[in-house]
Amino acid sequence: MTEVALMTFKFVLAVVLLPLVLASTLALQGQIVELDAVLRHHLWVGMVGYLLLKCFVYDFDHVYRFGQGMVTFCFQFLKPLVSAASFVIPIYTIFVLLAYALMSAMGVLGDWKDLFFVLISATFSMHIILTAQDLYEKDTVVGKPTYFFGMQLIYIVDIFMMALLMNAIVPDFSFPQFFKVLSSTSFDIYQMVFMQLFGFR
Is residue 161 scored above 90 in pLDDT? Predict the structure, then answer.
C-alpha cells in the first residue's frame, strides 16, 4: 500500500511540475531568440548535429558515463548529493562555457566563438537526452513514476543553471528577463488550471 501511495505521489508531482517545464523552456527560448542570428544558428546546428550523430553514428554513452564519473569524483565528499549530482550537472557544457569565458576574457576568442556555441548546444543536448534515457531504463516500475518526476525536476534545474551561466558569460543573455518570463508563464498556467478545476471564471 505504501509503494502504491508513493507511486501515486510521484505521478501527482510530475503533473504539478509540467507547467514549470513548459515555462522554463519558453523562457530559455525567449532569451535565445534575442541572441545574434548567427549564434542562434550555431545553437541549432549543435543540437541537430548531436541528434544525427547519436542516431546514425555513435550514441556517446561512454562519453556521458565518463562525465558522470567526473562529477561523482568531485562530489564524493557530499554523500547525499553524489547520486543526484551526476544526473543534474551538465559537466561538459560547464567546461565549454568556462573555456568560452576564459578565451573571451583573454581576447583570443575570435573565430572560435561559433564553435563554442555549437559545442554548448551539443553537450547540453547530450546531457538531457542521455540522462532521460538512463533514468528511463533505471525505472522498472509500471508507468515509470520515478522517471517522469525525476527527469522533469532535473530538466527544470538544468535550464535554470544554464540560464545563470549564460547570463554570466553571454552579453545578450538576460537572466532577470528569463526569470520574469518563467515566473509569469508558470503562474498563468497554474492559475488557468486552478480556475478550470474549481470552476472559477
Answer: yes
